[in-house]
Amino acid sequence: MRKLIPVFIFLFSGILIAQERTQMLKDSIAMVQHEMDKDAAVKLVEDFFVAFHQKDTLKLRKFTHPNIEMRSIAIDTSGNSTIKAEEYAGFLNNIATIPNSTRFEERLNSIAVYVNDELGNVLTPYTFFINGRLSHCGVNSFQLLKVDEEWKIINIVDTRKKGDCETEKKS
């Protein structure tokens, strides 16, 4: 029996090492999946803006959940915060009817992303130009939902302000 004790210790330590390595592998896979989710969330928002600048309303619709909501926050002339809801269909119609002679660009100054399982949030400070001239700036907040392993935009909230805008893209 005493001769078997070292064998049992060896086998038990091997089991412990295997369990530790398995957990390390699971943790590594989860970390990689989390980074892939973050990358996919950022790509969705970047693709949204490519389609936005191309006035491609079909792609813009493809990126969103059917129940998407939109809100804009602004400061009124009295200095009070106001919030305005907009239907996504109305937003798409507004994009589609921008004259071809009007150039617009929403430059993203940076992108911050947070994902947790099926929920994602992407923040993008921006500056908006019309025909090369600064129009306004603010921050976009995109709330995302993972549906069938794909991110969809469920909510867009943006702020808008005139003046005091950063126009240089941050790295």
Number of separate strands: 7
Largest sheet: 7 strands, mixed
Broad structural category: alpha+beta
What is the average of the pLDDT values?
85
Order of helices and strands: HHEEHEEEEE
- Percent helix range: 25-40%
Radius of gyration: 24 Å
Shape: elongated
Instruction: Report how far apart the termini are.
Output: 67 Å
Strand percentage lies at 35-45%
The unreliable regions are none
Q: What is the number of helical segments per DSSP (H or I, 4+ residues)?
A: 3
Write the layout of secondary structure elements.
Blueprint: H1 4-53, H2 57-62, E1 64-75, E2 81-86, H3 88-96, E3 104-108, E4 112-116, E5 119-130, E6 133-147, E7 150-160
Parallel strand pairs: 1-7
Antiparallel strand pairs: 1-2, 3-5, 4-5, 5-6, 6-7
Please describe the structure with a list of short key phrases separated by commas or semicolons.
3 helices; elongated; alpha+beta; 171 residues
Protein model, in words:
This protein has 171 residues and is α+β, with helices and mostly antiparallel strands. 38% of the residues lie in helices and 39% in strands. Strands 1, 2, 3, 4, 5, 6 and 7 form a seven-stranded mixed β-sheet that branches.
